[in-house]
Specification:
alpha/beta; Fumarate Reductase Iron-sulfur Protein, Chain B, domain 2; FAD/NAD(P)-binding domain; five-stranded parallel beta sheet; 16 helices; 16% strand; globular; disordered N terminus
């Protein structure tokens, strides 16, 4: 051995990195012909393996990314040690709808994007673990209710049983208040029940979460259109405070020739017929839906993906997504875009319809599209689509579903003196407290910010509940 030769000790082998666990799902060919849920959920073994990827940060940033402030590392640690029911209860300390959030919330843009593991590899699958814990508890059938404080004697009215309304109701009930939800439709759940398809959010899951809120002691009144059934002022005569969570149910259209033809649907109507009214099981259920051969869905968000994937399951031979920008600008979740592609949906990107053509008997027969190129960014930060002159062509279709967004339903604001709205008809509310211009009246969710995500509506509901509690109890900041 030479004097300068160093003796190198054997380095310990590095612990292999655990990859993010894939979730089992129906294969594309099978699921094209059924409305059953596509992702099948983690098994206990997969959940434990995925939970073990969490490094339990001392200052977890994932919590900062959660609009409802779930203690994410705590519930993941409970899954890791196979205390699955305790994990579900830990989540429910902050979120009464975990089975819903685990399925439809864009975790990749919220909690998971903050995950430290995600710097060098895929982040921990927080949403999938949330879903697993909630499903495990529900399927076990041993849901333990939290202790309800002594009654405060205060009464709260909640208008709308969507994610914002359900969150407000649950939060205020857990503070000891008497809460009543008024729902316009014959079933509770709002957009969760009428807007999101069965294959993405089974209605049995929604009803189980609604049932949990009712078991807390929240009263539910359906078929109650506030603005007709009773006014907000009527509610204020009986209740100490009112929360408005009526959502954004007014569909937008393209304002192009031919939109009044038979075979043109708003995504709201198309999905409501299928989801709430069970049109896909006609004639077992009374509400029909047009049988289509070639369907064009206009838009690039989650609602557009839901509409296109519904059309596939209803038997359409061809289903097209027509979106005016490129794939990069599409607001839909990546996994929803990928599933649509797997199921055979064709994407016509950088195209925009300029006219819908009809047959002699008034039904859609085709659509004229113009091709676009991307210009400078607009107010949304996305590059603006610029039409290419002379690039128009005819697309043969018999059904058009318009999924370009929704606005606020004007019924309730129009029937409520003193309630200020903006130029789009959304209720103006304090972004922190949800307080409106009308004393004792709060609002949150899509009716305030426009069509957005379930979890953002829930976050707004949580903030409003805190402010409403202080208001009715006379607590000053």
């Amino acid at each position: 051995m030479t004097p300068n030769m160093e003796i190198k000790s054997e380095s310990k082998p590095k612990k292999p990195k655990i990859p993010r666990q894939a979730m089992p799902q129906q294969d594309a060919v099978t699921r094209r012909s059924n409305f059953n849920e596509v992702p099948l959920g983690y098994t206990p073994e997969l959940a434990v393996t995925e939970a073990s990827r969490c490094i339990m940060c001392k200052k977890p940033k994932c919590i900062e990314g959660c609009p409802v402030e779930i203690d994410i590392p705590a519930f993941i640690q409970l899954i890791k040690v196979r205390q699955f029911e305790a994990a579900a209860r830990k989540i429910k300390e902050q979120n009464a709808l975990p089975a819903i959030c685990g399925r439809v919330c864009p975790q990749e843009e919220q909690c998971e994007i903050k995950c430290v593991i995600g710097i060098k590899q895929q982040p921990v699958a927080i949403g999938r673990l949330e879903r697993f814990a909630a499903d495990y508890e529900r399927e076990l059938g041993e849901i333990i209710l939290p202790e309800i404080p002594l009654a405060t004697g205060k009464k709260i009215a909640v208008v709308g049983s969507g994610p914002a309304g359900l969150t407000v109701a649950g939060e205020l009930r857990l503070r000891g208040h008497q809460v009543t939800i008024f729902e316009a439709l014959h079933k509770p759940g709002g957009v969760l029940i009428y807007g999101i398809p069965e294959f993405r959010l089974p209605k049995a899951i929604v009803m189980a979460e609604v049932d949990y809120v009712q078991k807390l002691g929240v009263k539910l009144v359906c078929n109650a259109v506030i603005g007709r059934y009773a006014s907000v002022d009527d509610l204020l005569q009986e209740y100490d405070a009112v929360f408005l969570g009526t959502g954004a149910g007014l569909p937008y259209f393209m304002k192009i020739p031919g939109e009044n033809l038979n075979g043109v649907y708003s995504a709201n109507e198309y999905l409501t017929r299928s989801n709430l009214m069970k049109a896909y099981r006609f004639p077992e259920y009374d509400t029909p839906i047009a049988k289509s051969n070639k369907v064009a869905v206009l838009g690039g968000g989650n609602v557009a993906m839901d509409s296109a994937r519904t059309a596939v399951r209803l038997g359409a031979e061809k289903v097209y997504i027509v979106y005016r920008r490129s794939r990069k600008e599409m607001p839909a979740r990546i996994e929803e875009i990928e599933r649509a592609e797997e199921e055979g949906v064709e994407f016509h990107l950088l195209e925009n319809p300029v006219e819908i053509l009809g047959s002699q008997d008034g039904w859609v027969r085709a659509m004229i599209n113009i091709r676009n190129e991307l210009g400078e960014p607009d107010a949304s930060g996305r590059r603006r689509p610029v039409p290419i002159p002379g690039s128009e062509y005819e697309m043969e279709v018999d059904t058009v579903v318009v999924a370009i967004g929704n606005g606020a339903n004007p019924l309730l604001p129009a029937a409520t003196p003193g309630l200020e709205t903006n130029k789009w008809g959304n209720i103006i509310a304090d972004p922190v407290t949800g307080a409106t211009s009308k004393p004792g009246v709060y609002a949150g969710g899509d009716i305030v910010i426009g069509a957005a995500t379930v979890i953002l509506a829930m976050g707004a509901g949580k903030q409003a509940a805190r402010a409403m509690h202080k208001f009715v109890m006379g607590i000053l900041d």
